[in-house]
C-alpha cells in the first residue's frame, strides 16, 4: 500500500454523453442480446436411445422396441420366427483324395485318407419379425453350422425378451 500525499490532484471523470433518463429506457432493446432469464429452464438433453440387447442382421432389439429399416415396433408386440434353410454335407476333401491316390501306388495304407471327412454348409437362414401391421424379413447366407446356431440363439434370446416384455 502506498502513501500518496494529500496534494495529489483529483481529476473528475466527465462522461462523453449527457446523463440518461432511466425511466425512458426500453427494457428489451431489439438490437442487443437478449437478457438472461434465470427462471426459464435450460432445454432438455436429447434422450439417448436405449442400448441394443441383441442384433440380428439389420434387426436391433432394445429393452422397449425392435428397430428395423422398415420401422420400429414395441417389443411386447413383436413376434420372431427363425427358418433354417441351410444344408450341411459331410464330404471327403480334395486333399484326402489326392493323398489316397498317391499313397495307393506306394502302399495300401494311403486308402485310409478316404476316411477323412469335412462338413460343408450351404444355404441361408431367415428371420421374420412381425407385429400389428408390421413385418420385416432378414435373410443371409451361411457358411458353417456354427453361424446357423448363432442366429438361432440370437432369435431365441430376442423371443424370450419379447415374452418377458409381454409378461410385464
Q: Which of globular, elongated, flat, extended, rod-shaped describes the shape?
A: rod-shaped
Major sheet characteristics: 4 strands, antiparallel
Task: Please list the strands of the largest sheet in the order they lie side by side.
Answer: 1-2-3-4
Beta-strand content estimate: 25-35%
**How would you classify the helix and strand content by structural class?**
alpha+beta
Oligomer: single chain
Distance between the termini: 75 Å
Helix content: 10-25%
Please give the number of β-strands.
Answer: 7
Report the C-alpha radius of gyration, rounded: 38 Å
Number of helices: 2
Mean pLDDT level: 79
> SSE string, helix = H, strand = E?
EEEEEHEEH
Pick out the low-confidence regions: none
Summarize the structure.
By secondary structure, this protein is an alpha+beta fold. It has a domain at 35-91 and 119-167.
Written account of the structure:
The protein is an alpha+beta fold and 168 residues long. It has a domain at 35-91 and 119-167. It is 21% helix and 28% strand. Strands 1-2-3-4 form a four-stranded antiparallel β-sheet, covered by helices on one side. Strands 5-6-7 form a three-stranded antiparallel β-sheet, covered by helices on one side. The protein starts with 53 loop residues before the first strand and ends with a helix. The mean pLDDT is 79.
State the main characteristics:
three-stranded antiparallel beta sheet, four-stranded antiparallel beta sheet, 168 residues
Strand and helix layout:
Blueprint: E1 54-56, E2 59-61, E3 65-67, E4 72-74, E5 79-91, H1 94-106, E6 118-131, E7 134-141, H2 145-167
Antiparallel strand pairs: 1-2, 2-3, 3-4, 5-6, 6-7
Amino acid at each position: 500500500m502506498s502513501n500518496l500525499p494529500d496534494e495529489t490532484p483529483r481529476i473528475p471523470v466527465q462522461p462523453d454523453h449527457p446523463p440518461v433518463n432511466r425511466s425512458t429506457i426500453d427494457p428489451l432493446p431489439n438490437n442487443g442480446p437478449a437478457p438472461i432469464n434465470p427462471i426459464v429452464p435450460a432445454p432438455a438433453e436429447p434422450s439417448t436411445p436405449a442400448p441394443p440387447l441383441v442384433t440380428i442382421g439389420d434387426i436391433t432389439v432394445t429393452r422397449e422396441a425392435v428397430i428395423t429399416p422398415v420401422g420400429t415396433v414395441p417389443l411386447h408386440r413383436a413376434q420372431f420366427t427363425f427358418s433354417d434353410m441351410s444344408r450341411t454335407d459331410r464330404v471327403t476333401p480334395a486333399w484326402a483324395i489326392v493323398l489316397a491316390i498317391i499313397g495307393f501306388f506306394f502302399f495300401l495304407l494311403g486308402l485310409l485318407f478316404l476316411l477323412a471327412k469335412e462338413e460343408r454348409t450351404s444355404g441361408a437362414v431367415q428371420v421374420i419379425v412381425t407385429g400389428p401391421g408390421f413385418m420385416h424379413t432378414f435373410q443371409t447366407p451361411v457358411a458353417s453350422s456354427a453361424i446357423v446356431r448363432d442366429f438361432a440363439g440370437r432369435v431365441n434370446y430376442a423371443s424370450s425378451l419379447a415374452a418377458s416384455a409381454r409378461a410385464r
